[in-house]
């Protein structure tokens, strides 16, 4: 006699709920813990299901205590601004960790170096660098996300990448231990790092070069104007959808495959920049992901190139 898959999922969910509740009660976790928390309002696409649990830690020690006490088998996912993310319609099992204001501070820690919390935005980091006369971090102004995501994905734009400015980063592992990793330990490649499995970035040090505030601001203004002119910034989108394959540009391959403006359900390939997918208003995450897969199919058929997703897709498909 076989188990009913639905029944098994329900029992596992109950076990997870008991384990999370026990860890909260036993360890006096000080952050906010919410069950069945809708994630659509927290991500740029404004679509998708709920987190089984959403945990917003008060500080690093709070996150450590929570992870130490929870069942090691419970999945844990870190969430930043939700800009480069598709949350599938069936929701996310386990715990989604969202780093809030306590993790969004940026201060000068040494000569030409900023100490940044993982929840700090690229705008805050680059603006602080300008105020401190630190050049070389302007490109962060153009990336819609937070330091944690930048570090994990080697975020980059306009000629700069995180690997060029990162000194080291602080991570909390799944067992709750805190470690500082030098940039060399991440083995960066294009939009990829080798962070330990389950690691949550909680802080990072970025180092630039001497610069004048007015010149730094001018470069930030140039980047902002370029983004405004070329990208659908005022739409429900998720940023760049596919990685650039080698020397080729993903958007050109998408365009050449006839996908500019392509629609599936409530989702559309942007006509302004066709490496962006849009939620036209009522798209499901299945619409958005399905459209992306159709674009990949058409590009492969047209050019022979197999596009690789840059947007992270998480959770359960309905």
Can you tell me about this structure?
- The protein is of the alpha+beta class and 318 residues long.
- It folds into three domains: 5-101, Uridine Diphospho-n-acetylenolpyruvylglucosamine Reductase, domain 2 (2-Layer Sandwich), CATH 3.30.43; 103-229, Uridine Diphospho-n-acetylenolpyruvylglucosamine Reductase, domain 3 (2-Layer Sandwich); 232-314, Alpha-Beta Complex (Uridine Diphospho-n-acetylenolpyruvylglucosamine Reductase, domain 1), CATH 3.90.78.10.
- It is built from seven helices and 19 strands.
- It has helices spanning 5-27, 60-69, 122-131, 147-153, 213-230, 250-256, 285-303, and strands spanning 32-38, 50-56, 76-79, 85-87, 92-98, 106-110, 113-117, 134-135, 156-157, 160-161, 166-172, 178-182, 200-207, 209-210, 236-237, 263-264, 267-269, 277-279, 312-314.
- The strands form six sheets. It has a five-stranded antiparallel beta sheet with strand order 6-7-13-11-12.
Query: Uncertain runs with pLDDT below 50, 5 residues or more?
Result: 1-14
Report how far apart the termini are.
26 Å
Structural Rg: 20 Å
Mean pLDDT: 91
Order of helices and strands: HEEHEEEEEHEHEEEEEEHEHEEEHE
Instruction: Summarize the biggest pleated sheet.
Output: 5 strands, antiparallel
Count of helical segments? 7
* Strand order in the largest sheet: 6-7-13-11-12
Tell me how many strands there are: 19
CATH fold description of the largest domain = Uridine Diphospho-n-acetylenolpyruvylglucosamine Reductase, domain 3
Class from secondary-structure proportions: alpha+beta
Q: Looking at the structure, what is the overall shape?
A: globular
The CATH architecture term of the largest domain is 2-Layer Sandwich
Number of domains: 3
Q: Assign the CATH class of the largest domain.
A: Alpha Beta
Q: Proportion of β residues?
A: 15-25%
Helix content: 25-40%
């Amino acid at each position: 006699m076989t188990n009913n898959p639905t029944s098994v999922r329900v029992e596992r969910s109950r076990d997870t709920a008991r384990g999370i509740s026990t860890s909260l009660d036993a360890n006096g976790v000080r952050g906010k813990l919410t069950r069945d928390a809708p994630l659509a309002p927290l991500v740029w696409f404004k679509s998708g299901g709920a987190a089984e649990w959403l945990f917003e830690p008060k500080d690093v020690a709070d996150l450590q205590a929570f992870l130490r006490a929870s069942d090691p088998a419970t999945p844990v996912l870190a969430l930043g601004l939700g800009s480069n993310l598709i949350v599938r319609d069936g929701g996310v099992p386990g715990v989604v960790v969202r780093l809030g204001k306590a993790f969004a501070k940026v201060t000068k820690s040494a000569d030409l170096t900023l100490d940044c919390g993982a929840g700090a935005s690229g705008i805050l980091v680059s603006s602080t660098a300008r105020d401190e006369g630190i050049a070389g971090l302007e490109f962060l102004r153009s990336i819609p996300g937070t330091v944690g995501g930048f570090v994990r994905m080697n975020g980059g734009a306009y000629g700069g990448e995180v690997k060029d400015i990162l000194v080291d980063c602080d991570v909390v592992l799944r067992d709750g231990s805190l470690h500082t990793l030098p940039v060399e330990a991440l083995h960066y490649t294009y939009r990829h790092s080798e962070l330990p499995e389950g690691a949550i970035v909680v802080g990072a040090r970025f180092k630039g070069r001497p610069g004048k505030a007015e010149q730094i601001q001018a470069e930030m203004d140039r980047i902002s104007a370029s983004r405004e002119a070329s990208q659908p910034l005022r739409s429900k989108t998720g940023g760049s959808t596919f990685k650039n394959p080698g020397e080729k540009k993903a958007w050109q391959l998408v365009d050449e495959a006839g996908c500019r403006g392509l629609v599936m359900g409530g989702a559309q390939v942007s006509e302004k920049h066709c490496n962006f997918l849009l939620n036209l208003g009522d798209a499901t995450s299945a619409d958005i992901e399905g459209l992306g897969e159709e674009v990949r199919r058409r590009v492969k058929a047209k050019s022979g190139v197999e596009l690789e997703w840059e947007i992270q897709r998480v959770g359960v498909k309905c």
